[in-house]
Specification:
This protein is of the alpha+beta class and about 260 residues long. It has two domains: about 80 residues, Winged helix-like DNA-binding domain superfamily/Winged helix DNA-binding domain (Arc Repressor Mutant, subunit A); about 180 residues, 2-Layer Sandwich (Beta-Lactamase).
Length: about 260
Amino acid sequence: MTSDAAPAKADSRTSGVQSVARVFGLLETLADAGGIATVSELAELSGLPLPTIHRLLRTLVSLGYARQEPSREYALGPRLVRLGEAANRLLEAWATPHLRQLADAIGETSSFALLDGAGVVYVAQAPGRHSMRIFTEIGHRAGIHCTAAGKAILATFPPAKATEIARRADLHAYTHRTITTVDALMRELEAVRERGYALDLGEQEIGVSAIAVALPGTPARGALSISGPQARMGDDVLHRAVPMLVNTARTLSRELALVRR
């Protein structure tokens, strides 16, 4: 009896972990779809069988983490707001000391952004020391195609997955420098991968430049960036900022790895 019971317990644990992974995967799929989707759309995007999606959605709706619209579509539920707000506060508190070190060393505003569907959201920031400096509101969402942070994060994906995400994005032209086609963005990502950092040269706002480096090897896709007026963001800042961004990104990645253990 002992030899039969042990595999059963192992199977139960494996099944439980798989169920949890599917729940969070389904929530992320729903978020990537804009926060609302039909069951058929979720099946196509997630690759999960329809019966599994129905079962998971029933549980999520009963707990308030999803809701069903009159249109029969499913949307993210209100209980996720509290989790998101708490997570953002903790991320901001954790990342800000590192950002402050960057801002003090380089003199320009440093930021931490995370992938948010087909865009990025800024979760922490430390202002530069100049009276004229760049400011991005915490919680602000921006395009993945026109920000250094967005391009740095997107470049961490295999080309096929990066293309898939880019096709869902709104490649809006914020300035005459903004990349507005998927093909052009894929060529830019190749350059990002080769040099190890991403640039925004007036692509989101004329006169503003940014440099960004992605966090390596973390499930949470994020990037650190330094931004400032284009007149101050010359080669000297680039050469000083990139090694510091790389080192800080590695530190944050190691700290995240310790938290996951």
